[in-house]
Amino acid sequence: MLERLFKLREEPDQAKPFLHHLEDLRFMLIKMAAVLVSCMFGSFFFRHELVKIIQRPLVLVDPSAVAKLQTFGVADSITISFTLAFYAGLVVSFPMLLLFLAQFVVPGLTRREKKVVLPSIAVGTFLFLGGVSFCYFAILPQALQFFLHDTQSLNWTPNWTVREYFSFVTQMMIAFGAAFELPVAVVVLVYLNIVSFHLLHNTRPYAYLAVLALAAVIAPTPDLISFLSLGVPMCLLYEGCIWIAWLIEKRRPQVNPIAPIP
Question: Which of 25, 23, 28, 26 is nearest to 5 (CA)?
């Protein structure tokens, strides 16, 4: 797998040794880790604001439920804050992480393919933030209201812990942000001639099965509501990717075959 990735980033007239590719990969991972850790520690100093943001969907559903959130660990205030800062740092550093990844692959791309890199980073960042926002404003309030009312319908008291609530909310938002990256991944693969419209169209049933399986894996909880709220948008995004691929291939200049010499 690494050899195929390294061949993709090699320039046509210049082949690099395998160890040089590994060195570039190591340097890229170090830069990504440094940016992520820096954004994480920067986000930690705004933990009080982050806590209010994460608790807001619950406030909209039931303001009294926030006061009922419980902690059972002595150091929960610090450990949960670091976990929250990690996810916030991941969101903040996401454009830079995409840029470092693109810089690693760019050397082996053609001039035409390099023109796709920066727009892909911009669109990828927009879609990631769009997925996070869609989950935060549209999905989370509805999901929390359902779980809250369902618990009360069983005559149970919904005493949630801070760790469980924060884990559910943050993982749900990150999962939606990652799911919304699907169009960018497909468009890049189409531009690189790795996949085509006909391939995406003909394998649609298998792709839907794979997408739903992925949604089941990245959903923060194994319940049906989380699965459907994540799986259905991913299937709709994949359907949109099929027609985006069709549009790209339609606008791609066709190479006329050379007429045979009589």
Answer: 25
Quick one: tokens of 134? 């869609």
Region 170-195: mean pLDDT is 84
55 token code pair: 């608790």
Cβ atoms of 101 and 154 within 8 Å: the answer is: no
Token couple for 151: 């618990």
**Predicted confidence (pLDDT) per residue in 195-221, tens digit:** 888 888 888 888 889 888 888 888 777
Find out whether 108 and 14 touch, Cβ atoms under 8 Å.
no
Q: What is the mean pLDDT of residues 93-109?
A: 81
> 168: which residues sit within 8 A by CB, 6+ positions away?
220, 221
Let me know: does 93 contact 185? Beta carbons within 8 Å: no
The reported pTM is 0.80
Distance in angstroms (rounded) separating the CA atoms of residues 129 and 199 = 29
Q: Is the pLDDT of residue 12 over 80?
A: no
pLDDT for 2: 55
Higher per-residue pLDDT: 126 or 115: 126
- The candidate with the shortest Cα–Cα distance to 45, out of 72, 9, 93, 81, is 81
Residue 255 has φ and ψ, to the nearest 5°, of -90, 120
Burial class (CB in 10 A: 0-12, 13-18, 19+), 97: buried
Neighbouring CB atoms inside 10 A of 167's CB total: 17
1 against 122, higher pLDDT:
122
Name the residue with tokens 């997925």: 131
